[in-house]
Amino acid sequence: EVQLVESGGGLVQAGGSLRLSCAASGFTFDDYAIGWFRQAPGKEREGVSCIDLDGTIHYTDSVKGRFTISSDNAKNTVYLQMNSLKPEDTAVYYCAAAIATCLQGFDSWGQGTQVTVSS
């Protein structure tokens, strides 16, 4: 059974940092791309960052220079380090898996973790 479990969310003041974790199990981690998405109340889900199986990394423009995605294949875990957080980063953050590349469809999703940034 494919499982993705996010953790690390919480409440932080603007300018602060959080590190999200996405622990994967039930599939061959090395064969998949892992992406981070977020959804704020009343807004559509948006892609935040993604790492391909070959290590290629993608960021949406609004987080470039502030967020860093990384992967620890030995632990089957992908991290999202979020620095210089802004109130507009407030959302539920999800990780998802896609075969090989971030350009494929994401068909396995975690349950999400809440990130709240206060002003």
Task: Summarize the structure in words.
The chain is mainly beta. It contains no helices and eleven strands. The strands form two sheets. Strands 2, 4, 5, 6, 9, 10 and 11 form a seven-stranded mixed beta sheet that branches. A four-stranded antiparallel beta sheet has the order 1-3-8-7, with no helix packed on it. The radius of gyration is 13 Å and the shape is globular.
Identify the overall geometry. globular
Q: What's the helix count?
A: 0
The residue-averaged pLDDT reads: 95
Question: SSE string, helix = H, strand = E?
Answer: EEEEEEEEEEE
Search tags:
single chain, 11 strands, 119 residues, mainly beta
